[in-house]
Amino acid sequence: MSTVAQFTERELVARIQDHFPPPPDWVLVGIGDDAAVVEAERNRVEVLTVDMLVEGVHFDRRFTPPAAIGHRALAANLSDVAAMGAEPRAGVLSLGLPADLPAADLDGIVSGLASLAARYRLHIVGGNLTRSPGPLIIDVTLTGTVKRRQVLRRRGARPGDVLYVSGTAGGAAAGLEALRDAAAAGHPDPSGFEDAARLYRFPEPRVRLGQLLARNRAATACMDSSDGLADAIRQLAEASGVGVEVDGESVPVHSEARAWFTARGRDPVVAAMSGGDDYELLFAVNPRAHGRLRTVASHAGAPLTRIGVCTAERTLALRWPSLSSADALPPGYAHFR
Amino acid sequence: MSTVAQFTERELVARIQDHFPPPPDWVLVGIGDDAAVVEAERNRVEVLTVDMLVEGVHFDRRFTPPAAIGHRALAANLSDVAAMGAEPRAGVLSLGLPADLPAADLDGIVSGLASLAARYRLHIVGGNLTRSPGPLIIDVTLTGTVKRRQVLRRRGARPGDVLYVSGTAGGAAAGLEALRDAAAAGHPDPSGFEDAARLYRFPEPRVRLGQLLARNRAATACMDSSDGLADAIRQLAEASGVGVEVDGESVPVHSEARAWFTARGRDPVVAAMSGGDDYELLFAVNPRAHGRLRTVASHAGAPLTRIGVCTAERTLALRWPSLSSADALPPGYAHFR
């Protein structure tokens, strides 16, 4: 089994390049010079975002196959581009490779990334390769474009605006726990939690939804839920200067996640809202824009669920209507402390 | 002594942000949203480049102070932007931080990077923070702009074009060796090799020179020498489809590097050409454009030395005129094999 250490940097670059289609006309200089050169798109502004995935922090090679590592690295960035309402355009890929990484795993990583990129007509125009003394490191920077007046921000929500979230919550978090447990028990896949595992390994960024919200001016604020739905709600509320009342019973908890958390004696809604890696969009809608939202919903390719409302009073409450009770919003996923 | 693990991600972002000036008008959305948003610059194309520095591969914290780590991470990228003839514009900073990194070291790293950015009116518009289970990781992505017809590429040199290099060669490589030896002996700095150590720790990217070459259309091809002068010559020649005859006696070996390599029984020219981390520009000039080159040279802020000539025969030779002998070009710095 050959490892990356047996190849020159140039051979590895050629190997990576093989996974990507030829660049379009607007890429004036692609892979292989000191830097890439691209034409700007007229009448649009540029979105710029970066995300680093580090082995042992963001993924575990025991249960995250190479294609999933590549997919996840790009999905995190595409989700940020989506949350701004932008269309993905160009990306650069920076890899830190342990010497013992099998060359076939590098192929798998790049292949997973390239498949997702192709679906969104995103072009990888350059990058950087280096050795890593320890963990596998994947850092992706993306550019995207959006009309200036259609940029979606975290701030902009007003009291009375209704909060929506796409897809489901908690699936990736439950999938990660189930994958960890299965790996510890020596099983390749967690029986009964295949869809949750898939959501962890191959999350689908809501690129189309973000663009639809932007073009239709349907949302007053938007962000992605990569650090958990609770964290997204907190950040959007804070950036907008509003409070939020979330109806805990309306949160669309993924069915396998509900089963997983319930079986472990945890409140499924709280666990789902606290878990990370969902890559759904949370957004606020002015009640008068519900017609626009219907247009968006019919083309979004994902269910959109009303989960709460923005309030003038700047508190964050999680209400349980059938119990006539309320809790504080649970915490989000913490990277550091 | 507080470490980064004692802070929340938000506190660390605020701490980092404190080092940067307020963003200019063309930054529509800066740090603190899902992604940054910038206006494109009219009538210019965009350059995009990324470089990752990993502890234990690209720097050793024993003899690379925090400010130098930040400086070097940005210099590597600025050098790539310079090699394309572009003006630096916006950047995103992605950091992987070990839990035990002192918060004061994070401040030092960002401060070193911010000082260099300010000198070139580069604005850091966003980024990403994550934990690292092992090495400190700094990945910087830069954008720059250049007029479409002034882009400098590696290809474009023709037989008869004269090769020039800026500054000196081998200083950073000798500085690194001297710093390693001094650290092993328990000394903070290598006596007698202070300038070489400075070139390693705080290399000066040739941003102004790159832009002057581009604006004056003085170069037919250009690249930076970050992987060594020999590697740069080889790559420029290959991309341009030419051979090269280098006059070994004309290579501007840094004086301390000459002393360092000579004292260790190594050919100083070969050692200087093979060492990395120089961040000088290698470029080819059509003999008829020597007037333009004089204009460039008078404003470049760095000595420019003629080191060879491009040939139709596609071989790479290192000539020693006073010995009437020739060698093959030495290898460059190898990241992998």
Q: Strand order across the biggest sheet of chain A?
A: 8-10-7-11-9-12-13
Helix fraction of chain A, binned, reads: 25-40%
Largest interface: A-B, 75 and 75 residues
* Helix/sheet category of chain A: alpha+beta
Features:
homodimer; 337 residues; alpha+beta; 7-stranded mixed beta sheet; 4-stranded mixed beta sheet; 10 helices; 34% helix
Ordered list of secondary-structure elements with their pairings:
The structure is a homodimer of 337-residue chains.
Chain A: H1 9-17, E1 27-29, E2 36-38, E3 45-54, H2 66-83, E4 87-98, H3 103-119, E5 123-132, E6 137-146, E7 162-166, H4 171-184, H5 194-201, H6 207-215, E8 221-224, H7 229-240, E9 243-247, H8 255-263, H9 268-274, E10 281-285, H10 290-299, E11 304-311, E12 316-320, E13 325-328
Parallel strand pairs in A: 4-5, 9-12
Antiparallel strand pairs in A: 1-2, 3-6, 4-6, 7-10, 7-11, 8-10, 9-11, 12-13
Helix pairs in contact in A: 2-3, 2-6, 4-5, 4-8, 6-10, 8-9
